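Office hours follow-up: a student asked to see two folded examples consecutively, so here they are.
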Amino acid sequence: MKNWDDLRYLVAVHKTGSMSAAARLLETNPATVSRRLSRLSESLGFDLFVKTPEGWVANEAISDLIETITGFENEIVSYLHTQSTAAPATGGNITVGCPPTISAYVFYPALRAFLESHPGLRLTFNALTLTEALGENDMIIVTQRPEQGRLVVRYIGKFHINVYAYPDSPRDMGWIGLNRSHDQAETMQFARKVMAGHDPLIRVETLHEIMGAMRTSRLPGLLPNIVAMSDPELQRFEPEQADLVSPLYLCFHETRRRDPLLQDVADWVAQEFNRTTQL
């Protein structure tokens, strides 16, 4: 293979699921991404990706190649963090993928103190809802334990959810839930059961957005306990209804085990979950 740099474009599309997102990640344009992938495809002798409604999915024939490239990429990042002479575990970029509710109510309140102890750290939080793959993230927080990939999986806590309402909320079974892509998720199945089998009257993208819609519409809605506790007016729609409890897992690629910066962020994440008693 003459153009090893083409492999960067392969991994970028695999991580992001689209040509445009890969172009942004690599600071180029979609046409360049497409051209590089076409050249690589011609060299290997088969199509690299299959177009699906969820985006571009890698051909199974290149899964081992992608795993090898990703592992090498992570090894390089870990090496650079380790070899930093000024502050070996404080400087660099770390991207965390997690549900927006967790970012807003667990991590953001604790950011100032953590960043003061890591002055060179640059954190990016990506909203994560359905995926169990790392994608472009250095680490992810998910409610389903991943079964595939060379991931280090660390249990960090539990997530409590219930259907909440205001004292003046209507009881006609209209409620606020997630969009249809989540209909088979355990959270939506739980809420639908509480609401006597009725579908949501209003749907939004994330649990984090439900609170705002509830405040203006006064309809009941599916909420994490940590969000509901921020509004003293809210109460369980069914007072005797037990919470839906989901485990939470922190995951990162096994080649990052010795990355001091990533391990510092992972320890901070676990620490903040231990401090948060309302989850």
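And the second, which I mentioned at the end of office hours:
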Amino acid sequence: MLLSAPLLSKASFFGSLVNKCRQVIKNQPTKSSKINDLQTNNIIDLQSSNTLTATQPVTISIPSTDRPAANFASSAASSNRTLEEKLGIPPRPKKPLTPYFRFMKEQRPKILAENPKISTVDIVRMVSKRWNDADAALKKRLQDDYQRDQHQFVEIRAKYEAKLTDEQRAELKQLKKDIQDAKDRRMIRKRIKELGRPKRPASAFLRFLTQERTNSPQTPKQTYREWHQWCTEKWSRLSDKEKEVFMAESRKDMELYKTEIAQWEEKMVRLGNIDVVRQGNLIEAPEPRLKGIKE
């Protein structure tokens, strides 16, 4: 394990470098634009930054469907928006690119001109090699440009922060918390899946729904919502005896599930994976007190 740690660190660093490169490529202006002028204007003038952001829409074409979970395009567009955009707050000024990524921004068009079919990963490798071989004068120029823009960015950010109201700050803080909580839940679900947690059995109604998909499938003229509503109404009309068939299967599988989940959680506690165990099972029951004995 100790020998693999440096390799893991390098892989993580290279992965983050590729992601940053993709961000730079995504925001790369057209050839007819003046790169240095746009970079300076982005930092100096918030109005100009807003214009640049508005001219880069994200368009996703998704075929229409009547299923409830089919609104993927709107969710994808929403995820690409900044926190400020989601709250209707003026966009936060962007940090200037570091000297290395300024160098990448200059070198990428040259590399693509020489190798039109080159991949993003290979671009990162070539830029890294060219950066190591770059002369000190070039690096100093890029560093000076970065320091100049950084000073201007600090001033603009201070003015931006001063214009935010207490209500807007509170909304931003809450939204960041909500996003982090959602991220933590996704990570927990991923860990639970990787650790092989037993799956909770389907309820009686879901078993009935599965049967109806075979016996009475959705028709071409029927939306999923309409079909689901029809199944719900049919389920409500079933007698207790008819429902008992599905409920008995559900109870049987639930008893087996309780045994499996208890064994799995006990194993997780022994392995130290406390975060995937239900919190109620981590609380030990208090010891019984004997009558007539005072503490």
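Two things to take away from it. The longest helix spans residues 240-271. The CA atoms of residues 266 and 272 lie 10 Å apart.
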